[in-house]
Amino acid sequence: MTKIKFIDKNGTFRLKNPENYNGLYLPIAGEKGLKSSITPNLGGDSKTSQNTFLLEPVSIENLHNNRSTRNFWCRIVGKGYWSVCGSSAKQEAAKFTDEQDESELEAGLMWQKLHRVSKIYGLEADTTSFVTIDGSMEVMLVEITNKTEDDMEIAPLGAIPIYGRSADNIRDHRHVTSLLHRIKTTDYGVEVTPVLSFDERGHQKNDISYFVYGSTGQGKKPLEFYPSVEEFIGEGGSYLIPEAVRTDKAGRKSGEYIQGKEAVGAIRFENKMLKPGETVSYIMLAGIADRTTNIEELVDDYRKTVQVKEALEKVKNYWINKVNIDFETGNPDEDNYLKWICFQPILRRIYGCSFLPHHDYGKGGRGWRDLWQDCLALLIMEPTDVRRMIVNNYGGVRIDGTNATIIGSKPGEFVADRNNITRVWMDHAFWPFVTTKLYIDQTGDMDVLFERVTYFKDYQSMRGTDHDEAWNTTYGNKQRTTGGQTYFGTVLEHILLQNLCAFYDVGDHNEMRLHGADWNDALDMAWDKGESVAFTCAYAGNLLDIAKCLRNVEKLSGVNKVEVLKELEILFADDEMLYNNPAKKQELLENYARECENCTSGNTVLISIDKICENLEHKAAWMMKNIREREWISDGADGGWFNGYYDNHGQQVEYCRQGDVRMMLTSQVFSIMSGTARKDQIKLICRSADKYLYEEKAGGYRLNTDFKEEKFDLGRMFGFAYGEKENGAVFSHMAVMYSYALYKQGFVKEGYKVLKTLLDTAMDFDRSKMYPGVPEYFDNDGRGLYSYLTGAASWYMLTMITSVYGVHGELGDLVISPALMPKQYNEKGDAKISLMFAGHGFYIMIHNPDKIMPGYAKIKSALCDGKNIENIEKMSVRISKKDIDKLSMEKRHVIEIYI
User: Fold this and answer.
1) 729: nearest Cα among 786, 687, 794
2) Strand, helix or coil at 426?
3) Cα 310 to Cα 278, 285, 307, 571, distances in angstroms
4) ∠ CA 380-384-386 to the nearest 5 degrees?
5) What is the mean pLDDT of the chain?
6) pLDDT tens digits for 201-213?
7) Which residue(s) pair with 158 in the sheet?
8) Cα angle: 626, vertex 632, 635; to 5 degrees
């Protein structure tokens, strides 16, 4: 059975013959700068943005198609030629035969090493690839060893194709844009500087250079260069059988200039006579630089093998330290998979939702929902800057409760939509408070609610249904008052405005309008009459949590009134007759949005916290009661679930009729998580989910049953094959949130099953065929697709820490309420977790020698650094914020809990 083999506790793994599996790739990137992907045969691409690709952009299908990959060749004089990554015509033809090279991949966080042995030529190569921490360049170290008993003369040649322009030019003037290339050879490499950034809407002078440099392991210069593709591959040749490799073709020397050609950093080194057992090293560097950068100086620190190996160790340690969470269960392989899952939110911070082979959409930047959910994980791993991020990101909220959908790379930079389409995702206003609540619980910092921040302003108005004709670019992208001043509201005001506007924005069935979609982006074809009961549940839970948070503010700070924009007063209407009338609710919302459409008054009023809390609680109670009474579905046997949607004909989407079962997981997740579903209903939902949605072969709980129709009055998802992506795949994100919701309501066994099935599927390489981590989804065969950049990772990590190990904050206090299943302890009954909380390091050990099930267990005693913890309830230990602040920040503190 093929299996990932871990060799340490930091996620480093090995895999034999990785080129025998399609679709494998690893992200390698810096904190800024280059964002690359690399495959076992050195395919993939590299870029800094949509308009600056160093290597040709690739999608998932290009990985087995493209020949123009990174490569390093050895021509064995008098015998033949060999690629260290297997990308030659001969090696391709030898795959799956007795002549196939032996290969093994070793990889960790942001680096990989490919080990390859040629049976034919007796050569062995280790090719190590990574991106520098600052993201300035890719580094490739090639170490070649003669494994025969005879001397061997090799002619080494490295080749990295240089695409050097925008991804748009793949199908938009590919040849024409190559005519803009200005190529020069230097002492150590090839530089390409296009004269223009080509765009028929307005060409721009280009100041960006793309480079490939090379040296021997001792820092010696190359012999010659083949800087254009046609020179390198030759007439009739290809990247799999290039003329410059198969023949002793003369190249160009340093200081030559070429114009208007497709470029390649093909670098030949002096012939080397390798003695038996001798190893020789070569270095290839590739990057992007602006006109202020001296490339020669930039690469000088990576010219020798010893320098590269030092840099590699820094890269390894840097990213290991970034993932400052360690799990120790009874299964070391699971612990290592969890290490990769905890790394995934960091990858989303760097890559956004684009720029990996599966993620061939978007043009960079993170989406609104993704940003807030990734903050959940970053709060635990990288908390230092999260407060500033939270405050800044509220600046993307519009005064009508909608928001910009794309967040730029700079603080406070927002874009209405990546494709300039006017649209509203109705779930977007839900997520900011979820993240803010976690922040407040982790830190006890309630003052963040009273930070003042601007509102986003653009042409879109009336919650995406109209345009503000009085707005123009001179107005700017910050909401103004009638006096022309930029308006600042508190974070709390932003939260209230988002959630209250959503409350009134309902359809004919008095559930919140679906608009352009909710969490499920593929429910995008029901703008007129679509409604999302699922997120009506979610917002009801939010309203209760906001009220609870405000009551804590009043209790702990003594503040009993808050300031809000005067126009907001209308949203605090509290009248059940109003609540029961969808048309009146829409009318009230329209009056508010129209009043603020261009400018606000800038006037504010004080409202008592008690009045606000009562208002929110009344609204939430009404919403939950309405859903329980109107949306519950019984299967006529021992199951039941909530309908989650109405389609564009105003028809209920989920039902059970004469054997036609329509059930969606999202609907159940938010009814459970919010508390809308009663305990007895949760039991019925679990039975139904197990009966209708669960399929072990596919990886767990499907997103929906098979509707057996192209339901284009709801969304594009029904055009997908069933069991793929949003149409009934095991979609990791919602599955993990199902687990989180179950843990939250005390259904530990059921929540554990969800997490365990997902992880087991990912870890079964013969099924998932993916590197460690959790994918966006598993297809019908259990294959993991869309690796790395998924919100599932943040929620998996959050669920493991806060629900399974039970380590979480409550207004700055550290609370530990473990809910581990017997299989999650080692043979001694111990489970451990290491993490940061409130700037302090903690090593938490839970001792349960009898492996007592959650629900039956009781904490006997607890220690912190050997001293008794007094605040213990049945299954909960609490250390106050006051006591945590007294602890040293210079050491890791040991907490032991005895069950």
Assistant:
1) 786
2) coil
3) 22, 15, 5, 60
4) 75
5) 95
6) 677 889 999 999 9
7) 72, 267
8) 170
